[in-house]
């Protein structure tokens, strides 16, 4: 499951093996790391050890450093459970890899300080280990996104209990993000009005008891997801025990009760979820200082590009170069968000006419607040949006303190009724130029999914999370995966 949906995993006694053994993905990742590290070792030995190999003493020291650094990588990664991690979301894998690399630094720092004669050995070993962590991290993501994501037999087939809005959102998410490792096959729900219908493209097969009464239907899945725990209340334990699966995932919430470092505790037979709510005060001060420095540097670097884009916009269509729009900044505050104009000057009038005359476009806009084919966008505007260059003027908003480099979406005041109670959480931090929802589906996510992601980000913000978002943003910009 995605970290947007932290879940309690309850192991049941009745065994049912998945189509693809659960050890196989971890074993495949371990073999991949071994192959990549062997290639790294050969490359370093071939291109960077020519001087050391001429001296037997230096050659032996180099070999010790190389072997130590490379062996530390799979050893420490296995300590942090990276090879047995059932979920393959970027954030959790990034967090654990950073923790493993930090532990590696700490382990090698002690002998570096106390053993003066061996300092060069530890510097070499640490450098090789950090290189190994970086290379294997990239290789793991490529393997997961490529081979494992496309192998349907590897993904665990799951039955979703509850075909309501939350169940539909989970099914859509699992179908859109195959690297989460689960493949929904259908729904069961006690609401008879939903039987024999389709939700998120999947059939609602019948009541929950159908799974225990019909082995043929139960065999279609290897696990179950209880989509809405609050709906079952005190009957949740009884419900879980009636499900004929070894694993049942109980979803605790769509972003509102989640944390990056949520952990589970056994309180003498009672399952408890510990959720850490981090006080963001110190972190926000650090981030504001980084915003000022980075936005000032970037504004200087991209000034020639922005001047060229301004000229191109003037030549492309009539109207101003800049587009200003009121955005919400928390509480009753608003600010003027700056963008390069990517639409015709009468864009709002065109939108109203389109929504009045085209019911399909109206339905799409009500769901996503965006249009896949938008006639309001100018020819140059399509390029600007595809490459995200239209957002460069927001660096000035960041420097002035209206925005941050990373944060929740800058909502329009008219959208606040749809944001609802989540506005109280989102409004505690500055909106961002990029953010968690922008790198997690962007225009393919519904409006309510974006709100949930923004709440999740605010409640779990931190420097490591921000670094993860920046890396994914850079990848999306290079791929041209704009709005």
Question: What do these coordinates show?
Answer:
- Keywords: Exopolysaccharide synthesis, Membrane, Plasmid, Transferase, Transmembrane, Transmembrane helix.
- GO terms for molecular function: phosphotransferase activity, for other substituted phosphate groups.
- Belongs to the bacterial sugar transferase family.
- With 483 residues, this protein is α/β, with parallel strands linked by helices.
- It has three domains: 6-15 and 156-255, Rossmann fold; 25-151, no CATH class; 281-342 and 377-479, no CATH class.
- The chain contains 19 helices and 13 strands.
- It has helices at 23-47, 50-53, 56-79, 90-114, 119-150, 165-176, 210-213, 215-218, 229-232, 236-242, 281-316, 347-357, 359-368, 379-387, 394-400, 416-419, 423-426, 447-460, 463-479, and strands at residues 7-11, 156-161, 182-188, 198-199, 202-203, 223-226, 247-251, 263-267, 270-274, 322-328, 334-340, 404-406, 432-434.
- The strands form five sheets. The protein has a five-stranded mixed β-sheet with strand order 1-7-6-2-3, with helices on one face.
- Strand 8 and strand 9 (270-274) form a beta hairpin.
- Helix 4 (90-114) runs antiparallel to helix 5, helix 11 (281-316) runs antiparallel to helix 15 and helix 12 (347-357) packs across helix 13.
- The longest helix has 36 residues, at 281-316.
- The two termini are 26 Å apart.
- Residues 1-23 and 255-259 have low confidence and may be disordered.
Topology (SSEs and partners):
Layout: E1 7-11, H1 23-47, H2 50-53, H3 56-79, H4 90-114, H5 119-150, E2 156-161, H6 165-176, E3 182-188, E4 198-199, E5 202-203, H7 210-213, H8 215-218, E6 223-226, H9 229-232, H10 236-242, E7 247-251, E8 263-267, E9 270-274, H11 281-316, E10 322-328, E11 334-340, H12 347-357, H13 359-368, H14 379-387, H15 394-400, E12 404-406, H16 416-419, H17 423-426, E13 432-434, H18 447-460, H19 463-479
Parallel strand pairs: 2-3, 2-6, 6-7, 12-13
Antiparallel strand pairs: 1-7, 4-5, 8-9, 10-11
Protein name: UDP-phosphate galactose phosphotransferase
Domain Bacterial sugar transferase: 287-479
Transmembrane segments: 20-42, 62-85, 97-115, 121-144, 292-313
């Amino acid at each position: 499951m995605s970290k947007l949906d932290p879940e309690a995993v309850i192991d049941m006694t009745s065994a049912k093996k998945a189509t693809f053994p659960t050890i196989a993905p971890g074993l495949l990742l371990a073999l991949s790391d071994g192959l990549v590290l062997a290639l790294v070792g050969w490359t370093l030995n071939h291109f960077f050890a020519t001087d050391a190999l001429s001296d037997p003493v230096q050659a032996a020291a180099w070999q010790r450093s190389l072997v130590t650094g490379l062996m530390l990588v799979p050893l420490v990664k296995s300590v942090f459970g990276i090879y047995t991690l059932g979920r393959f979301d970027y954030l959790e894998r990034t967090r654990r890899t950073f923790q493993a690399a930090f532990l590696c630094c700490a382990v090698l720092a002690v002998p570096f300080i106390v053993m003066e004669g061996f300092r060069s050995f530890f510097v070499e070993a640490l450098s090789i280990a950090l290189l190994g962590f970086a290379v294997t991290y990239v290789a793991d993501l490529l393997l997961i996104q490529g081979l494992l994501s496309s192998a349907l037999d590897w993904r665990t087939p799951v039955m979703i209990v509850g075909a309501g809005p939350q169940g539909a959102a989970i099914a859509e998410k699992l179908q859109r993000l195959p690297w989460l490792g689960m493949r929904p096959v259908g729904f069961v729900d006690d609401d008879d009005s939903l039987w024999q219908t389709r939700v998120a493209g999947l059939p609602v097969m019948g009541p929950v008891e159908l799974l225990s009464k019909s082995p043929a239907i139960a065999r279609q899945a290897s696990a179950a997801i209880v989509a809405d725990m609050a709906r079952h209340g005190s009957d949740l334990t009884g419900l879980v025990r009636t499900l004929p699966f070894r694993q049942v995932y109980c979803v605790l919430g769509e972003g509102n009760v989640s944390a990056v470092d949520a952990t589970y505790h056994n309180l003498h037979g009672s399952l408890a979820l510990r959720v850490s709510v981090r006080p963001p005060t110190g972190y926000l001060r650090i981030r504001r200082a980084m915003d000022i420095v980075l936005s000032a540097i970037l504004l200087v670097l991209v000034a020639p590009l922005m001047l060229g884009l301004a000229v191109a916009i003037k030549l492309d269509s009539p109207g101003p170069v800049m587009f200003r729009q009121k955005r919400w900044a928390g509480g009753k505050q608003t600010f003027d968000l700056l963008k390069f104009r990517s639409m015709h000057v009468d864009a709002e009038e065109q939108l109203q006419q389109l929504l009045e005359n085209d019911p399909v476009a109206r339905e799409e806009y009500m769901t996503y607040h965006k249009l896949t084919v938008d006639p309001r966008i100018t020819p140059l505007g399509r390029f600007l949006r595809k490459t995200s260059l239209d957002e460069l003027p927001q660096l000035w908003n960041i420097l002035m303190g209206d925005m941050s480099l990373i944060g929740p979406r800058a909502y329009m005041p008219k959208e606040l009724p749809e944001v609802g109670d989540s506005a109280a959480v989102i409004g505690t931090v500055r909106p961002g130029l990029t953010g968690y929802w922008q790198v997690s589906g962007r225009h393919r996510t519904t409006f309510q999914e974006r709100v949930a992601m923004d709440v999740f980000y605010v409640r779990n913000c931190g420097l490591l999370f921000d670094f993860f978002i920046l890396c994914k943003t850079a990848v999306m910009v290079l791929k041209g995966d704009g709005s």
